[in-house]
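Why do we care about 3D structure at all? Because function follows from shape, and shape follows, mostly, from sequence. That is the central idea of this module. The next example makes it concrete: a single protein chain, its amino acid sequence, and then its structure expressed as tokens.
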Amino acid sequence: MIHKVFGFLLAVSILLVGCNGGGGLKMKYYEKQCDLISVEDTVREIVWSKVAANPAMAAKLLRLHYHDCFVRGCDGSILLDPTQNVTAEKTAGPNRSVTGYDVIDEIKTVLEASCPGIVSCADIVALAARDAVSYQFQKEMWPVFTGRKDGNVSLADEVGVNLPSANANFTTLQAQFKTKGLDVDDLVTLSGAHTLGNSGCALVSRRLYNFTGVGDADPSLDLTYAQTLREICPIPVNATTPLEMDPNSSLSFDSKYFEALTQHKGLLVSDAALLTNAQSAHIAQVLQKDEVFFARFSRSMVRMGAIEVLTDGQGQVRKNCRLANDH
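And the structure:
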């Protein structure tokens, strides 16, 4: 029954976003441009093989898409390597732990061999994120509209102001999402991506040991969960110690993040912030059902994937995802 309901809700969510993904993106954009290869099938086959070998890769590729879209839009700018004169996005503090670049490089190499100069790195990132999550279900979990072009500018100092922080309060998060054309429903729903992957002790040590500067813990954190976290992250805190974003479920894409969140077991300050606003707290309650979360996540991912996209007549299709074409 759940699968039937999910199928219906997914169909409705696709209708809600329309026949294109916004910004001039289209379904099957490459169908007539690449005769020798199916772009979507190629990306899926490579990504599924990577996730099968390393389930943690799903979170990494999903995170890569998020971090790309919130800075200069979904233009692949996070992929650009720093140059002698420019510190690129990937060198900024919040992005230093982002990985998955090698998977994007491998996909790009395969596509360039059969369809040179056509498939953008930005589209590869968007498709890879969807396919990484979808491997668990062996079916596409949301539609990916394509036709993005690649940007050729990547600046480290643009990351902090645009990318939502793990320590942000609700007002800041809402404002950052609104700037990108996303609403409170998108904010809460997309935070559900934290059902996958790990964070680290460094990002939660203040919540555990010095929340207001007087050696206290964050009072909004469940006491038992806080003690568990202190056992994993004793003083002196080892910044590299991993912490599951979604306790005991960090390799499974499901709604358990919202169950934990509403029990005051959200790991980050930005997670807990979702409970400080009546509207977002209500949305978090609703999203505790898998079928509802999946359908709403599908809609929000399409909306996020259309942030400030470059399309025909703008940007470029980079030959190497790490370098602008003029290099």
